[in-house]
Amino acid sequence: MQCNTNETGCNNLKQICRVERELEIERDKDKEIEKEGEGEKDPPAPAAYGRFCNVFLSDAEINGLKSELPDKWEYYIDRLSVHIASSGKQYHNHAATIYKWAQEDAEKAAITGNALKKGIPDYSYSEEDSL
User: What is the pLDDT of residues 27-78, one digit of tens each?
Assistant: First the structure.
């Protein structure tokens, strides 16, 4: 009888271990499902823009460019696209590159405008002035 008791105890332990393993498997499955659900919350991949479809911008970045550079955002995207295609350069952040180029162009325009103002005499006159 003592042998049967040990066998019964052993069977009970096997059943407990089996139940614990099944619970672990269910927990692992639940974790995988949660991970899959988290993957769906990732932001969408950036879309390709430009003449050569090699400028990658997220929706937020493209909306920012449209609002901050309303008349020139398409120009800068195409300019970057052509530059990347022709030079083979790679950029970490295409939106940042576009903003940088826009700032540089604005600075050049300001400097050029000031140089023109300094180098050319003012020939403006009012109707009361005689020539």
Answer: 777 777 776 666 556 677 889 999 999 999 999 999 999 999 999 999 999 9
Copy the structure tokens of residue 89.
């350069």
SS3 123: coil
Residues 6+ apart with CB under 8 A from 79: 101
HEC sequence for the chain: CHHHHHHHHHHHHHHHHHHHHHHHHHHHHHHHHHHHHHHHCCCCCCEEECCCCCEEECHHHHHHHHHHCCCCHHHHHHHHHHHHHHHCCCCCCHHHHHHHHHHHHHHHHHHHHHHHHHHCCCCCCCCCCCC
C-alpha torsion angle, residues 82, 84, 87, 93 (rounded to 10): 140
